[in-house]
Amino acid sequence: MSVAHMMLGNAAVAAVLVLFAAVVGSVCRSPAVRHVAWLLVLLKLVTPPLFNIPLPILPAPRVELPAGQPTLLTTTPAGAVSPLAGNTTPRPTWWDRLRDYGAVEWAVGVWAAGSAVWFVWQCRRIVRFRRRLRDAEDAGEEVNAAVARIARELGIANPPPVRIASGIGSPMLWGAGRSTVVLFPSELLTRLGPEARDTLLAHELAHFHRRDHWVRLLEFVATGLYWWHPAVWMARAGIEAAEEECCDSWVVAGLAASPRRYAEALLATVDFIAESQRPCLPPAACGANRGTKLLYRRLTGIMHAERPSRIRGAAALVYVPLAAALVFQPVLQAASPQVLEPFSVASIALPTNAPPTRCPAPRKLIEPSAWATARAPGGAVTAIARDHEVVLRGADGADHVLGPGKPVALAFAPTGNRAATAGPGAAVRLWDDGGRLLADRYAPADARAVAYTPDGTRLLVLDAAGGISVFDPATLAPLDRWAVDGPANSITCTPDGRAVVIAFGSWLDADVGWTECWSIAEHRKMASYTAASAVGATRLSPDGRTLVVGSWDGLVAWRGLPQGDLIAERQLPKNLVAAAAFSPDAGTLPLEPPPPPVQVQGWPEVQVAPVANR
Q1: How many Å separate Cα 430 from the centre of its chain?
Q2: Three-state secondary-structure class, residue 36
Q3: Do 60 and 338 form a contact (C-beta atoms < 8 A)?
Q4: Distance CA 390, CA 392 (A)
Q5: DSSP letters for 143-206
Q6: CA atoms of 415 and 165, how far apart (whole Å)
Q7: Could you give the CA distance from residue 425 to residue 407 in angstroms, rounded to a whole number?
């Protein structure tokens, strides 16, 4: 299971837990119970699963009869008719098409980029705030004595130090571990009396006693990983609201502080925040700046505060299934296709005088048109290039889409059991004859063409920058690289495997084209031949003595090697050149020139269609 699948499963479970926490928050008065309910949502997002639960909720493939297959009808003695179902072929669903077009990879990329931006932005804020703390001062003996007294009442053995800082909006608990400190605004300290000041200090120490600063770190990580998930932001709001109410209960009911003085201190803090210009609240801080709705609820709760107790009895039983959800992982799967099995209706007797009933013929499926095909050596596998996809069709007739994305070029290994593709973009991929991805790598620029040496020991990839990269055909490990000048379109290996022929030409200047022969070992140009127009593809005869040059406009020339003497020229369909540029295994460029056009006086020229020599 990939990390992305695991995180998506956690996100699905967290969405369900959010609904449960919302119900708990609406019916339960205890802020401690609500706090735990929302906290479990964030814990699920960062907890690795231990058990998988398959959920077949993705769309199932559609199953239809293949094109052209007749429906067999048999009549029973009583006149009943029994349709016999034939073989079925699954059709791709919308989910399969999105995956083939690379939508999943794009979504994961946006997810990762958003997380990276979040962590960089927040870390920058933390660094800037730590610089601000360099000017923070000690709170003084009076404040430290009050902190020690409150800590004893709360049962805190080692309370965090209190620092006086300017530019912050409210008292806050910030940091983790030994670096945890209570920060108090210097301007607000001068406005409050001792009793009001002590209530705010008690509130922050209650956060420390509850270890809420560790929850801030959990929020920090969960938000960075799942910034797009509404459950994160809902859980954060619910957790922080419950924390504030719990700490209010500790201050008023637990420490016997005056509710009136505490409420006045909160209102003074809100008034101070309103007067401050852009008060600083760093990430992972427990502060009092939470909004007017929460403030109203807190002030109401302060007048009726009760010291929060531990979760016991029936309330604890509620969280047993929720805690169990932390270790389970849903795995999204496609539903099983529903295939109609052969059946008989012989048991249904029709009247003997009733005419036989015939089932309607199934609708024929029209296979998408292909603009290029290439057959592997041995003919067991065929590559089919369509407008939006490239598929491998096995001997059993099953199609396997080579995705995500659409390759622009393909070549079969001499053994016929592997295929290499170029594109989309700079991607270079290696496939087995069943359409399974074996290896992938990226060229320095957009890959345009790919070819194997005849012995199958090297794989050559031509990119848009004119670079020719040599890869290991088993692992795609880079072996060598050199570059040529000009708009290169395709590449073909010579029968001896020592050189390559490269086709040059651009659509922007269709009247300029040429071919070059380069030594693979020496990276040296051995010969160059000019063409009448931009060259899209080339083909060599098995003996290496004839070079077929196909231009994008359909003009095909035959040249004798090594001198490059022109043998013949013919105007052929353009799609033959496009198919040859897609794959050197297409074989659409004829090795022998077709007969010249037959000219009959008074009749237009008749062009004899070429036959591909394989």
Answers
A1: 20
A2: helix
A3: yes
A4: 7
A5: HHHHHHHHHHHHT-SSPPPEEEESSBSS-EEE-SGGG-EEEEEHHHHTTS-HHHHHHHHHHHHH
A6: 74
A7: 8
Structure tokens at 609: 């269609």
What single DSSP character describes residue 258? -
Instruction: Output 52 or 359, whichever has higher pLDDT.
Output: 52
Distance of CA 67 to the CA centre of its chain: 35
Q: How far apart are CA 410 and CA 451, in angstroms?
A: 8
**CB of 590 closer than 8 Å to CB of 417:** no
Measured between alpha carbons, how far is 251 from 307 in angstroms, rounded to an integer?
8
Token representation of residue 301: 């709760």
Q: Is 217 helix (H, G, I), strand (E, B) or coil?
A: helix
pLDDT tens readout for residues 333-345: 545 444 444 444 4
Say if residue 281's pLDDT is above 60: yes
Question: Is residue 456 helix, strand or coil?
Answer: coil
Q: Please spell the DSSP secondary structure of 74-109, one letter per residue.
A: EE-TTS-EEEE----EEEP-HHHHHHHTTHHHHHHH
Q: What string of DSSP letters covers 313-361?
A: HHHHHHHHHHHHGGGEEEEEEEPPP--PPP---TTSPPPTTSPPP-PPP
The answer for 466, left when phi > 0, alpha when psi is -120 to 50, beta otherwise, is left
Phi, psi of 381 (to 5 degrees): -130, 145
Coil, strand or helix: which one is 482?
A: strand
What percent of the chain has pLDDT above 90?
40
- Provide the token pair at 357: 């009933």
Site of tokens 């360099």:
134
Q: Which two three-digit tokens encode residue 542? A: 């098995």
How many CA atoms lie less than 13 Å away from 267 in the CB half-sphere? Answer: 10
Report the run of H or E that residue 58 belongs to, with start and end. Answer: strand 51-58
Sequence-distant (6+) residues with CB within 8 A of 439 are 429, 430, 474, 475, 476
Q: What is the pTM of this model?
A: 0.50
Angle at 322 between CA 321 and CA 325, to 5 degrees: 90
Run of H or E including 449 = strand 447-452
Residue 488: its H or E element: strand 488-493
